[in-house]
């Protein structure tokens, strides 16, 4: 059943879900308060674009762990939700810290203090008419499940995840309707996701190199863990629907459109291959309930053994999602020439596009690519779509007048919203948009505060020093107007 079917007045549907997005490990803080246990994020030190974050098995007193305090939503949730309400948010994407509910992940009884905290958060959202959109797992796996069970390589994590799901579906029934099973599920296919998504613990303390060359052994481990997550997601969908027919469960992928570098057929085939693996491998399972036609050859050529159990395919077939959601920040180009590919500046081993500009962090800005991607995904899956991450990471400075004049962010978002409108006119069933990092938060990849996305500035630096005072940026007032006019006044 569609979750939209909304009458349109103007370009955007009249109940379009405007809002913003955060993740608990980057936003919440309170890492050891209220009975919370240690997550994998809590074992990652700060870093930078040139100095990787480090992993430590034991929390060290002489290291800075950005997730421990983050931007202190845990203490300031009322103030922060009031700011979201002032902007007119219809929806707020957030995640639940798994370790705030089950500190080690394998307990038989949930942590009552954690449940109480999120109930207060959801009631505060309700006060301002904000619909929570909850990501169940967003790079916040209990560290104990990684250390003691091997993370998502172990099928027992499916049981632990489902117990977590049953608890929050039951406890927050009537408070939360929109859920996402896993954040950026397809990141597991890349080295970036081994620790953050899979919970694979490094053998030794040291730098977490999030972008390393693939080996067949590494690929086999990643895709086996990904299969376990896909099964867990499907089971969670069925569980959510059985506990409350009002629940709407979505998937979430890290997405971008990929262009061939040239019209050389070899480049076109390389681009197609990347599109298939990045955008459709997980998407087909989550939406269509089966692995795509190209998967078997990929498994054979890379010696991948998924360790499938007999009932898995039936589980995947029945546990398909209600809506498709994704993050979009950039596009990239693919080349069959290995020398050109080595020179690539984008993540996921793609090549910079000479026709596009880039952010301060080298992420290429491509609003038209968002329209292209929306058309491709909707044409393939024909279910409602939400864009649940999109935004510009930039260096924001408080000017002498005490204000943050971030016209560059307004320009970025305006261009993307314009292309969203074009996609809706194309016929895409787009039902929501949550700009990433609506209040400044720490970076997942580097742990920095310098890379800011929010409409609200948070006074803290890369070392966690500052007053944590919230300051509205120019983009705050602009986005409020966008929501008030339902996207008509940009």
Automatic annotation (TrEMBL):
Keywords: Glycosidase, Hydrolase. This is 6-phospho-beta-glucosidase. It comes from Trichococcus ilyis. InterPro entries: GH, GH_1_N_CS, Glyco_hydro_1. GO terms for molecular function: beta-glucosidase activity. GO terms for biological process: carbohydrate catabolic process. Pfam families: Glyco_hydro_1 (PF00232). GO terms for cellular component: cytosol. Signal peptide: none annotated. Gene3D superfamilies: Glycosidases (3.20.20.80). Belongs to the glycosyl hydrolase 1 family.
